[in-house]
UniProtKB/TrEMBL annotation:
Modification type 4-aspartylphosphate: residues: D52
Main localisation: cytoplasm
UniProt keyword list: Activator, ATP-binding, Cytoplasm, DNA-binding, Nucleotide-binding, Phosphoprotein, Transcription, Transcription regulation, Two-component regulatory system
Name recorded for this polypeptide: Sigma-54 dependent DNA-binding response regulator
Record domain Response regulatory: where: 3-117
Gene: atoC7
SUPFAM superfamilies for the chain: CheY-like, Homeodomain-like, P-loop containing nucleoside triphosphate hydrolases
Subcellular location: Cytoplasm
Native organism taxonomy: Bacteria, Pseudomonadati, Myxococcota, Myxococcia, Myxococcales
Region (Disordered): 455-474
Biased composition (Basic and acidic residues): 455-464
Gene Ontology annotations of biological process type: phosphorelay signal transduction system; regulation of DNA-templated transcription
Natural source organism: Corallococcus coralloides (strain ATCC 25202 / DSM 2259 / NBRC 100086 / M2)
Amino acid sequence: MAKVLVIDDETNLRKVLAALLRRDGFDVTVAENGEQGLAEFHKNGADIVVTDLVMPKLGGMEVLAAVRAANPDVPVIIITAHGTVDSAVEAIKAGAFDYITKPFDQAELSSVVAKAAKTNESAKRSVRADHKARSAIIGESPQIQDVYKIIDKVADTPSTVLITGESGTGKELIATALHGASSRRDKPFIKINCAAIPATLLESELFGYEKGAFTGAVTSKPGRFELADEGTLFLDEIGEIPVEMQVKLLRALQEGEFERVGGIKTTRVNVRLVAATNRDLQAEIEAGRFRKDLYYRLAVVPIVLPALRERRGDIPMLAAHFVDKYNRRLHKKIEGIADDALALLQAYAWPGNIRELENLIERVLLFADGPLITAKDLPEPVRGGAGVQAGAQVAASLGTLDVPVGEVGLKDIVRMKAAELERDLIVKKLEETGGNVTRAARLLQISRKSLQTKMKEFGLRDTTPDGQEDGPDE
């Protein structure tokens, strides 16, 4: 049950808001002014904050700034009168999730808070975007170095970027880095999760609507494109957009103009678009669920994020980063990760990628007695599942490794055996495909770029296992 903090100096409105939100299943706490609201937020926290814009002493803008400084993942919804709508729009540009005008429509309130709850839940499962641009990205592997190079080259251009990768690989972090490293960094950075918006409401969310455009449209409202003017618009999960909506999005991207729902006036904007998806858009095109012309318009600059299992060398650095982060957040004093635990972390497959690693480190820190995280502190899927299986394989085949067992630690043994198994698997798939790198990468379920990097590491680059030239790509 999501916790909502309602801050409003009008007693009756505060009571009505609380009653409606409790009816919708939320756990509601109320505060009668901004100071009281922030005190409650800092003491007990909240998943969503609903605050009046104009209040004595401490107004909604100050509440917004304080909440975002404490936890930028918490959506803040602004309540405003008709005469201060412009101020509410400025609040959204400053980071507010959305706004509601007085007198508000109950259905609109429920819809906005429900969207905020989904956004907050998604943020809890994701790696939080750090607004220090590229410096927030953790890793030194060749795959991440390639991503750094792309960011450096294209961040300060208006070109559209399409970020692809499995769920939990940090796509929003890359989008934030692109915005933070551009000359638009002081302009709005507007984010929208397309999967969290019902298909029937997506057009009004993107392009806004005029008063009376549909039932419940009691006032005009700008869409995300307008709010992102001169800045960056990040469309996460863009593969979820319905085909009929893709046509309108394509026009907005190509022409830089659109009309609000129910309006006839054309609005022009200067927006840099960054999109992300964990879907295979090429397969979606073949299935008729995604337009080819929109794909090419989005993928001017493609960035493919590797899965964590493809960049195991970055796991120690990432794990140390999360230990430091949650030491501070949870007031713990864990000094680090023991070699046996680190070896298991590197051997694990990480189907949930960086997001799963972060959640695991947080959970382990909560229960670890310290001073180091050891193998016994890790959960069963890591310690007794994939990790133990990998350890058993290592133990069973130590005789095949040309190393003195007594002189090599578990971490090094696991790394060496993992590399050996990885090389054998790549060789096998290259043999099966006649040296075709693209097809081999598809069978291995990694990107072509990642496979090329691995081939170079193992001395296989540009050759098949028998030394012949690399087969033609499809």
